[in-house]
Amino acid sequence: MTIHAPSRETFEARLRQIGDARYHDKHPFHQLLHSGGCTPDQVRAWVINRYYYQTRIPMKDAAFMSRVTDPNLRRIWRSRIEDHDGTEPGTGGIARWLKLAEGVGLDPDYVASEVGILPATRFAVDAYVRFVRDEPLLPAVASSLTELFAPKIHSERIAGLFEHYDFANAETMSYFQNRLKEAPKDVAFGLKWVLDHAVTQADQDAAARALTFKTEVLWAQLDALYSAYVEPGRIPPGGWQPGEGLL
């Protein structure tokens, strides 16, 4: 007997349910940040550690593209690298993140040095890069589908930071504002590609596991921040210490 995979609609609903249940907008650290409850040092710790993730996004996309034999897929995918690296020095998402770092009182050169990154941040982010580099193309693409849920968190973050923090202005918030414009094209393409290529039950299960893994990568980073800088406040060896790297 042939077992047919669930429909595209059912599969998409399954993917979206993973985000509803597991996306990191529900993490206590983000709830604290968006409500204005973070201290300046807690915001700085978030900016420093999130920078490591931002810098590895184009690296994981380059690793992915190195395995893609379809020129059309490579042409479409490479815009993700340009979004973060920019097309010339001083442009792109990484440069905009360093503007946020400067706005919260950090020396951008210190942040760019990647000194002070929490061990768990490195572990989680590096695991994501390896996953995209080594797994089959379908789960590698599916792991990017957390972008389905990103516009909501960016909108909440923009509103919350503008309302509660003096550092929030057009320049420091430019990373998030730009992602609201950049992410929809990536979401539309990535979701369609996964729905088109997950043609068996095994394919759909692999894609769902990949998306779950990515939500865990994002959640683990916030767990590390919360443990080190909120409660109980145990900063591990090598982690950023308040007062370091300030302007």
UniProtKB/TrEMBL annotation:
<dbReference type="InterPro" id="IPR039068">
    <property type="entry name" value="PqqC-like"/>
</dbReference>
<comment type="pathway">
    <text>Cofactor biosynthesis; pyrroloquinoline quinone biosynthesis.</text>
</comment>
<dbReference type="InterPro" id="IPR004305">
    <property type="entry name" value="Thiaminase-2/PQQC"/>
</dbReference>
<dbReference type="InterPro" id="IPR016084">
    <property type="entry name" value="Haem_Oase-like_multi-hlx"/>
</dbReference>
<dbReference type="InterPro" id="IPR011845">
    <property type="entry name" value="PqqC"/>
</dbReference>
<keyword id="KW-0560">Oxidoreductase</keyword>
<dbReference type="GO" id="GO:0033732">
    <property type="term" value="F:pyrroloquinoline-quinone synthase activity"/>
</dbReference>
<comment type="function">
    <text>Ring cyclization and eight-electron oxidation of 3a-(2-amino-2-carboxyethyl)-4,5-dioxo-4,5,6,7,8,9-hexahydroquinoline-7,9-dicarboxylic-acid to PQQ.</text>
</comment>
<dbReference type="Pfam" id="PF03070">
    <property type="entry name" value="TENA_THI-4"/>
</dbReference>
<protein>
    <recommendedName>
        <fullName>Pyrroloquinoline-quinone synthase</fullName>
        <ecNumber>1.3.3.11</ecNumber>
    </recommendedName>
</protein>
<comment type="similarity">
    <text>Belongs to the PqqC family.</text>
</comment>
<keyword id="KW-0884">PQQ biosynthesis</keyword>
<feature type="domain" description="Thiaminase-2/PQQC">
    <location>
        <begin position="13"/>
        <end position="223"/>
    </location>
</feature>
